[in-house]
Amino acid sequence: MMNKILILLLSFATLISCSSDVKNNTGEINIRLSNASPFDFKDITVNTSTGNVKFEDVNSGEFTNYKTFDIAYRYAFIELDINGNTYTLQPLDYVGETPLKDGFYTYKINANESQEQYERLTLSLIED
């Protein structure tokens, strides 16, 4: 009887340790957006170097759903609309950058008060 209980406990412990980080073992790069600004974002396009990906609109303080990318970096091209005006975060290139590993990430986007198209947005990467 004691052996059966011991085997059951060991099996349970093994099962828990194998599944503890399933979220990060997807074999894909999954990115969502976080709107850290006081403004609502509309018509959002993200390009991590493999083509444009459209995201749903995201209100201030909210998150989008995750989208899957083949390749992504700690920053990306982002274009979006705030109050009818288009703003762009434009990387020069990805030379010297290391691609993100498979997992879940959030591009946290903030917007300042500037009205300049290329100076309003900032981006930081969060590993979820």
Along the chain, the helix and strand elements come as HEEEEEEEE
Q: Order of strands across the widest beta sheet?
A: 4-1-7-8
Question: What is the overall number of helices?
Answer: 1
Work out the oligomeric state of the chains in this entry: single chain
Q: Class by helix and strand content?
A: mainly beta
Number of strands: 8
- The rough form would be described as globular
Main beta sheet: strand number and arrangement? 4 strands, mixed
Low-confidence stretches: 2-24
Q: Which band does the percent of strand residues land in?
A: 35-45%
Distance between the termini: 43 Å
Q: How much is the average pLDDT?
A: 86
Radius of gyration from the alpha-carbon trace, in angstroms: 20 Å
> What fraction, in percent, of the residue positions are helical?
10-25%
Describe this structure in words.
- With 128 residues, the protein is mainly beta.
- It contains one helix and eight strands.
- The chain has one helix spanning 2-19; strands at 29-35, 42-47, 52-55, 67-69, 77-82, 85-89, 103-111, 121-127.
- The protein has a four-stranded mixed β-sheet with strand order 4-1-7-8, with no helix packed on it.
- The longest helix has 18 residues, at 2-19.
- The termini are far apart.
- 16% of the residues are buried.
- Mean pLDDT is 86; it is low at 2-24.
Topology:
Elements: H1 2-19, E1 29-35, E2 42-47, E3 52-55, E4 67-69, E5 77-82, E6 85-89, E7 103-111, E8 121-127
Provide a quick synopsis of the model.
By secondary structure, the chain is mainly beta. It is built from one helix and eight strands.
